[in-house]
Amino acid sequence: MAPVAAQAADAVQCELDRPMRFGGMNWESNLVLVEVERFIVEHGYGCDTEVLPTETLPALAALERGDLDINTEFWLNSVLEPWTKAQATGKVKRIGDIYMGGEAWFIPKYTAERLPDLKKAADLPKYWEEFKDPEMPTKGRFYGCPAGWGCEIVNTNLFKSLGLGDTFTLFSPGTGATQKAALTAAYNRGENVVFYYWFPTPVVGSMDLVKLELPPYDAEKQKCLTDPDCADPQPTDYPQNPVFTAVSTPFYETAPKLVDFLSKVSVPLDDMGEAMAYMDEHEAEPDEVADWFLKNKQAVWTEWLPADVAERVKAAL
Prior knowledge:
It contains 15 helices and 10 strands. The protein is an alpha/beta fold. Helix 6 (150-161) links the parallel strand 6 and strand 7. Helices cover 46% and strands 20% of the residues.
């Protein structure tokens, strides 16, 4: 079937006369989804593709400039202020929601059992000695968001709003992989650790964790937390977090068939969690997980596509 599939893809005229440019964010769900979409675009729509490694805020700027065509995962909670400004320019468009993500501050369940009175994030200063920073043992260490990610702004502001700077350092790992490795190692050693994380992810799915309570969600407070220049941050819980796909306006106007497909990309959380677990268990690369997803979750992705496109993708598999 491979030569037939190749001929079929060659026979399809891509709407673009150049490679389609995807933003490559460095966390697992995005890396996998990008590979799923690339496979479909290449084999179902006959297009060439390329991935440009980036971070959340640079990706948004690149979309505005037209240097990227698509960024598959923007987490609205992390980019509310800059996204609102970018959207107002008319240079970018939100075309579909992938799933409803979540965020929280966590401690392991074993830490919660050791420290039964530690229920709230605001209680952390009382327990800083339980989370000593190895590089600054006079303070505890809080593992925040990886440097350069949109959630770094929210976590920095939330950290300030809770007055944690006197008793904790805010540690921003250099990459998502560094953060995951540090947290996994601490967890496997049974160490007390407090950290920010998002889900669905292999980390949250594989660890037994307890959320620290934050004050009830307040939309105005949250809006300020997403602003790098927030003058008076106030603590509030994370809202539900729509994870959405955005494209540049020139791409939107040039490639209506591709936009129609991408606007329908939506993955049930259970299926995404299963893909993340497969990635973790098999130490699989994103393209390998994408191949697994396309072969095992056809009921999900065929809903995104016209029948003839779906058949070309199946043939390529």
